[in-house]
Amino acid sequence: MKKIKIMLIMTLFSFLGNAQTVTPKESLFDLKINSINGEELSLGAYKGKKILFVNVASKCGFTNQYDGLQDLYTKYKDKLVVVGLPCNQFGAQEPGTAEEIKTFCRMNYGVDFPMTEKIDVKGEQQHPIYQWLTQKDKNGKMSSSVKWNFQKYLVDEEGRLIDVFYSMTKPMSNKITKRL
């Protein structure tokens, strides 16, 4: 009886240990997106660093998080890339053109982290990056939905989803920084 209990405990610990080792069903690094300048932004170039994907908007109550995103990027630049993905799906709070968004971000917040073209993060036209971030059958970890602007997705150095942080979580929050 004692041997059976020990075997069950060992099996449970083995299972729990394996549950944390997640291999995505698709590689994030194979997905394509254009930068805000219209040139292809290669996610593969970021392999070896963590990536924080954030759907951003210029006219949102959370827009001041650009300051925190820039601080996070500056402080952890050696091991983290912040990628801002403009989106106009929540309250039409990102109506600007690529040039207007770029100018706004640089002039008001000094943004120099990578920004992409404007995309959809949900719905029928959901960008493949957000399909990967939000669908367990693609990322191998969890399903989620994008609730509002400035929702954050953290991916590890090998392209595995770590976690999602909703808009209320500030970029320099311990919830994020302790995972860097």
Automatic annotation (TrEMBL):
Signal peptide per UniProt: 1-19
Coiled-coil boundaries: none
SUPFAM superfamilies the UniProt entry points to: Thioredoxin-like
Keywords: Oxidoreductase, Peroxidase, Signal
Pfam family, one: GSHPx
Gene Ontology MF, one: peroxidase activity
Family per similarity comment: Belongs to the glutathione peroxidase family.
Descriptive protein name: Glutathione peroxidase
Species of origin: Tenacibaculum polynesiense
